[in-house]
Amino acid sequence: MDAATEIPDLDQHLSRFGLASFRPGQRDVIAAVLARQDCLCIMPTGGGKSLCYQLPSVAREGVTLVVSPLIALMKDQVDALAARGIAATCINSTLSPSEQFERMDGMAAGQFDLVYIAPERLRSSAFLEKLRATNLQLLAVDEAHCISEWGHDFRPDYARLGLLRQRLGFPPTIALTATATPEVRADVAKQLQLRDPRVFITGFARPNLHFGVREAYSEVDKDQSLLDFLNATPGAGIVYAATRKKCEELAELLRLSLPNRRAGLYHAGLEAEERHRVQEAFMEGRSPLIVATNAFGMGIDKADLRFVVHYNLPGTLEAYYQEAGRAGRDGLHSQCLLLYSSRDRRIQEFFIDSKYPAPETVEQVYDYLRKIDQDPIELTLEEIRERLGLNIRSDGVAACEKLLEGCGALERLDSRQNMAGVKIDSDLPTLVDLLPREAKVQWRVLRAIEAEIGELRGERVFVNPRKLAAAAEVDSAALTRALRELAKLQAFDYVPPFRGRAVHMLERHKPFHQLGIDFAEQQRRRDAEYKKLDRMVAYATARRCRQVEILDYFGDPSRAKCGLCDNCGGSAAGAASADQAAAEQSPELVEAVRIVLSGVARTQGRFGKRLVAGMLIGSESAKVTKVGMQRHSTYGLLKHLSEDETLELIDALLRLRLLQQVELQPHRPLLQLTPRGQSVMKGDETLTETLVLGSSLASKLHAGRPGRKPAAKAPAKPVEKTAEKPSVKTPPSQPTKTPTKTPTATPTPTKLSPMSPAPTEREADFDPFAEVNAEFDAPDEFVVPRAAPQPADASHPPHYWTWRVLQSGLSAIECQHARGLDAETIFDHVLRAARDGHPVCEAWLLSPRQITLLEQLIGNQPPQKVRSLLANLPAELKFRDVQLYLHARGLSG
Question: What confidence tens digit (pLDDT) does each residue in 475-487 have?
């Protein structure tokens, strides 16, 4: 049926919701819902998603069942609807059993237009029975990203909704979320079994929001930026931080620095009563500021938020836009500020690594839990983490349990106050026929349980033991004995009552490697999380319109520039001065850029940003001098800049992709030249882009180095050199040949002699580019710092990081120095990485002679034929050499 013929005028219903007009996209979604089409609606926070199912619920007969993740959220919605005379209710655990049954009866009788429930309610057979008797005209799944493991807030009970739709005959369904990427959208549609759903992606452009990013190069710098912003921005707002500790520090900072603006503190580590008190004070305006983790926000409908500040980099653009979008819901101008530091990425990497734990960590958790003679096992995640000494967060332990649950080793149980869990996993009409005739008590108990479970076979159902004993007409002791006997049936599973979160072990005897956990899939999901983090960093460092960056990410077709963000020239961009614009094209700035690029070239990609910055400004710190960086020709050439200013310049070059950061060990990003950065450094390519710099730094760079003669503009093409000179420029991939040095495939780092003469003092007009080609191709000698052995990373085992170092192009000897490991361990790590599925190269560790012998001996023969050759290996080969060769050639098996 055409929606227009069913409901000729949608506008007539707007007044019931206190509205005069539709927001962009709402009318089309509502028309599709009224046409009884399945819909997937992606609208940003504050975009008006709720109306898309609320208006249809009053426009026609029947009940709309709304699945919502938070009790507080559903209560707020119900109260708001009731205030406008709309028949709405919620059924949740805060109600007494009699209240729940009364509202279920009202639902079946058609007394309500909307009924809100949590997904866990679907475990109740009594509720499902009443739902079957209800004229259900629409199922609305709010915060639908929770159904997808690709979403950032996966909730297992949401996964039952697809089965619910199937049992109810596939009623018309609308899934709504503010944070769905294409992967999440596809997964939501699949999990809910939506039929040819209409997909609406709209309303992501928020014309009243100013998006801006301020880069900070230290914690002090970031704190000052936050205080400056808050002093200049009145009204209510949220300051988000990544960790509980940082929230507590910031709350204290604001209390001391802004005594006239009361700031509340909110994170999951506080008692529930305290969190409620803080939230109420914020919503009522008694505490205009709140410092919080991302635990605060879902369901917060405060229309007059004037700003949202992210002190730390969020992990995804979905999370960022959902949280930032809580500002300006009243349509008035509001600000969304991100305080960006490249070091914040490490926090999110740690979160990702905890979310996808290494196989060794999962095995530790499994071996520990299966040896505990207790059922259920009532241990908190933190208790498990501390007892095993794991280097991951408590949610990393939860991730381990989730994997073990997925392979059938255990079952995670939510907090149930003195409730027993029962599950019947059988298609038989009744299990009573499996009991001995004389087991009369067991017979009565089983009958009572089957009546309680109803159609929920194969699922865990929680029952009140007292109610069960009354239904079976037995006392509590007889009930317990009967349940223990019933648990011996293969199709019957019983979990005794417990209070908090608990784990029910289903498998205690199978070795870990036989559980069949798909760690390759885990790695794929982990890589996807890192790609999302990359997109978040790309947003923070973007030079184009920030609104366009967001719209592109979510696939919103309306990609017009906002004209308001800092990159479009909004108020935050006003800090860029005319001096900066002039400096962008000045020879002095180009010279500073080439100095930085040249300095990075001379460090050969072995150091991070801060150490490179220290070398460029001439730092005499032990960190700089102990690795011989004072001997580089670029040492001290930017001594007129501070370390933070040099870091700012380096970050600007990272944004232009002239430099890149590569992580070869956990949380240790190294600074390297990109091919284009090399071209700009050598003068092969002219720097034409605009560098986004602060006005103070731009002025310094425009003035040039003190005492330096005015720099000449770099030529677009280098001058052709004569054939007589040995320093003829060659492509980067071809090392320059000199009379005194024969290039090798893998140069061995040379340690500087402690008696080497100190470098001569540089003249003010020293030109570091006069022989830049020869210096780059034959770089300064340096000491590869010998690192202490690294502990196992939270997500990756040590052999993974050894593989990363070798894959980056370092030799085996350099890898030994960088990782602090001996040759035997390096070889072992490479073989373990190969067994994990990482691509390896035999040339990393085998000599050309060894590779030739292996090619002659094995060639491309399959593994089963190779075994017969192992007894007669040449003396130059070992069994491990054969293993490496087979893995590298894809012949292992």
Answer: 988 998 999 899 8
What are the two backbone dihedrals, phi and then psi, of residue 737, each rounded to the nearest 5 degrees? -90, 135
* Cβ partners under 8 Å of residue 113, min gap 6: 57, 58, 63, 64, 86, 87, 88
Cα(353)–Cα(351) distance, rounded to whole angstroms? 5
The residues pairing with 209 across neighbouring beta strands, listed in sequence order, are: 334
H or E stretch including 191? helix 182-192
Output the pLDDT for position 612: 93
CA separation for the pair 412, 399 (Å, rounded): 11
305: β partners: 236
Q: Tell me the one-letter amino acid at 513.
A: H
Cβ atoms of residues 535 and 180 within 8 Å: no
* Distance, CA of 214 to CA of 310 (rounded, Å): 10
Cβ contact 210:564 at 8 Å: yes
Closest CA to 217 of 315, 348, 339, 313: 339
Tokens of 857: 């001996």
Which residue from 140, 154, 149 is spatially nearest to 194, judged by alpha carbons? 140
d(CA 665, CA 804) in angstroms, rounded, equals 8
Q: Is 48 left (phi over 0), alpha (psi -120 to 50) or beta?
A: left
**Are 551 and 561 a contacting pair, CB within 8 Å?**
no
Q: Kindly give the residue spans of alpha helices, DSSP state H, lying in 84-135.
A: 97-108, 125-132
The DSSP secondary-structure symbol of 574 reads G
886 has pLDDT over 80: yes
DSSP structure class, residue 876: T
Apex 143 CA angle, 456 and 46, nearest 5: 155
Q: Which amino acid is at 790?
A: Q
Distance CA(440)–CA(445), nearest Å, equals: 9
Q: Residue range 340-366: average pLDDT?
A: 89
Could you tell me the sign of the dihedral formed by the alpha carbons of 873, 879, 885, 891, in that order?
positive
CB within 8 Å of 585: residues ≥ 6 apart? none
Tell me which range, 250-259, 750-759, 809-818, is most confidently predicted by mean pLDDT: 250-259
HEC profile for 253-297? Answer: HHHHHCCCCCEEEECCCCCHHHHHHHHHHHHCCCCCEEEECCCCC
The C-alpha atoms of residue 885 and residue 855 are separated, in whole angstroms, by 9
Tokens at 605, concatenated:
């990609």
Say if CB 365 and CB 397 are below 8 A apart. Answer: yes
Q: What is the pLDDT of residue 56?
A: 93
Other Cβ atoms closer than 10 A to 408: 12
**Nearest partner of 250 among 231, 226, 268, judged by Cα:** 226
- 132, HSE (Cβ side, Cα atoms, 13 Å): 11
Tokens of 367: 């071996």
Q: How much of the chain is helix, strand and coil, in % rounded to 5?
A: 45, 10, 45
Angle between helices 823-835 and 798-807 (to 10 degrees): 100
Amino acid at 285: G
Using CB atoms within 10 Å of the CB of residue 226, give its burial: 0 to 12 exposed, 13 to 18 middle, 19+ buried. buried
Q: Which amino acid is at 631?
A: R
Q: Which of 796, 803, 797 is nearest to 887 (CA)?
A: 803
For residues 543 and 690, is the Cβ–Cβ distance under 8 A? yes
β pairing state of 39-42 and 334-340: unpaired
- Positive or negative torsion for Cα 633, 638, 644, 646: negative
Q: How far apart are the C-alpha atoms of 190 and 187, rounded to whole Å?
A: 5
Residue among 564, 844, 795 nearest 666 (CA): 795
Alpha-carbon span 282 to 310, nearest angstrom: 18
Taking residues 328-354, report their average pLDDT: 88
